[in-house]
Amino acid sequence: MIVAEKKPLEAIARMLEGSGRVLAVGCGTCVTVCFSGGSKEVATLAASLRMKRSIEDRPLAVVEAMVQRQCEWEYLEPLAEQMKNVDAVLSLGCGVGVQTLAERFPTMRILPALNTLFMGLPSAQGVWEERCQGCGSCVLDKTGGICPVSRCAKQLFNGPCGGSQNGRCEVDEATPCAWHMIWERAEALGMSEDLMSIEPPKDWGTSRDGGMRRMVRNDLRLPEDQDKEGNE
Amino acid sequence: MDNFHPEVVAFCCRHCAYAAADLAGGKRQPYPSAIKIVELPCTGRIDVVNILHAFEDGADGVLIAGCLDGSCHYIKGNLYARQRLDYVRGLLCEIGLEPGRARMINISAAMGVQFAELASEHVETVRALGPSPLRRKINQGEAT
What we know:
Chain A is α/β, with parallel strands linked by helices. Chain A is built from 9 helices and 7 strands.
């Protein structure tokens, strides 16, 4: 899931300085299950903002709304009606949700209420940890399902750095050493010999540098879209 | 400030504090009329937004009264309530309200006298903090 957390209320309030009526929109997927942008969090943020602004003698009306998925056009359609009487929209979605709203409603101010943190999992109740950086060329087959890109502070591919102590990372003792775990896992799988071969430098061309990435599946595309592009 | 009559919403677990409040009444043990009791099946039922809505609707204070540690009928409901209250206190600071307006107490059903004492204590804390600025706004709104 995509993990996000609420911005400080002060920062959100600053974004809404000139607004008198806003629509707060939650998202029913990732940010609902990480308790940052579900219906309860929308209600909590709406009440907090209303109270803060009321205390400051500048009342703010906050309309609460939820969509199943902010990152897909079709789910955003019902919001068009609710946006008619507001001067800004506060998205409690991840960065993708905010941008999808901004693209769909180009004349409306769309503001982020959350900071999007990472792709991860709930490692314990109330605790979320990063597991994937979307590097674009997965190596989990070689590392026993433990990612050296997201979990090794130095993103090493040929064993630990030598600074780890007792299975903990030297950068942060709270973090387990990814390569310690990879080795233990390989031993449990009887595959530790596989780790002896040298992994060549990774091709980072698929990773985050170089602007927006795109994935295209021509078999899924609309024929008319492909025709249009062919004629351009 | 002399004519300030605080309103404190008390979210009470029915297995302990609600019965304790009842016992206080049965014993003719007075507690302030400022206390407005909301009965809950367990304090673990309370959500962050319920506490915020109490303040938004004009409560000067909130009291959460749950079972003694280790005595929750649902094992950990009172512990969850305390964690949520800690979270709400942080939100109250962000909003601009004093976190001391919200407090949790832990008592058993047999502690009617203590319920009255602790509830009175919280009402006095709230009285010292003065009326909630939100309540003033609501009253102004009603007057206009």
